[in-house]
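Hey,
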Amino acid sequence: MTALPLDGITVLSVEQAVAAPFATRQLADLGARVIKVERPGEGDFARRYDTAVHGQSSYFVWVNRSKESVTLDLKSPRGRELLERLLARADVFVQNLAPGAAARLGLDNAALARRYPALIPCTISGYGTTGPWADRKAYDLLIQCQTGLVSLTGTPEETARAGISVADIAAGMYAYSGVLAALFARATTGTARAVEVSLFEALAEWMGQPAHYTRHRGEQPPRIGTRHATIAPYGAFPTADGGQVLLSIQNEREWLALCRDFLGRPGLAADPRFATGPDRVANRAELDALVAERFLRGTAGEAMAALEAAGIANAGVNDVRAFLDHPVLAARGRWSEVAVPGAVVPALRPPADLAGVEPRMDPVPALGEHTDRVLAELGLTPGEIAGLRAAGVV
């Protein structure tokens, strides 16, 4: 089998929740050995978010496959000493400890760079490690609120959070790509560079388009449910059978096709109210009423078939169950299997395919499952490990 790109790379992580675990799981997907340090008896608090997956948390199962779990009490001198020995063997260290905790433990990027010049340290914080909000706690929905995302999501009557942890995911993605860039730089220049990512700045990058729009237009895009703030017609419409179909018109060719082939009103394309994209947005209510009337003449399946024949991008509005059964995922073999404590469950393969390379899809670890093995690699005897366990260090 072809070697994975990160074979031979060791990642040590002191991580919680989603952002840092998502970053390190993707490194594990590519073959890195990820040693996850958890609190004895408690572990990553994401283990207890829910019990949906055979008693395991859906969050934890998603972002922690292919890792080794080691328990260490980092507040004890012996636990800290063992962590230092692991750091000396690692290529990358990732942490998203609470504000100020990493510095108190000597695990901030600057301190680690002094002790281990070949190590790539990666810090994931809420609002950055400097600045006026460095000491504030930050969770995903707080960041959605602070970046203005919540003000864009929902209906005119009510705001809504994004249905997934977008701030955590954004930060995890940038930490992952940052670590990959730092590994490349170390390999080509010999210099190990620290990586820092904040949830706030990661999601702020994703807010780029509405930020530009608001700054230069003088008002922010409206909150309009499944409609698009700057394109019309674009959104989901109900059908006669109770379904919903979303269509998207991106250019004049598609607008002409929609009028001629789907609405059956070719003259509508030249109507002054709808002649240009901005005209259609300005007169969205009238246009949507015309489109909605057409959708109500048939079923969702009939509407999608007619839109497809006209070359108009469209999609049914799936729930999560329909997504799980999506024919594209099945036909392209995107589902694999991953072991969790006591069961085997379906899991999606990583979305980036590398030609000739099979991603790593190893088990989700039980709390402390690999403690004995990892400490034995450091030279500890079974008796010493048992003593540490009795003392609550592991």
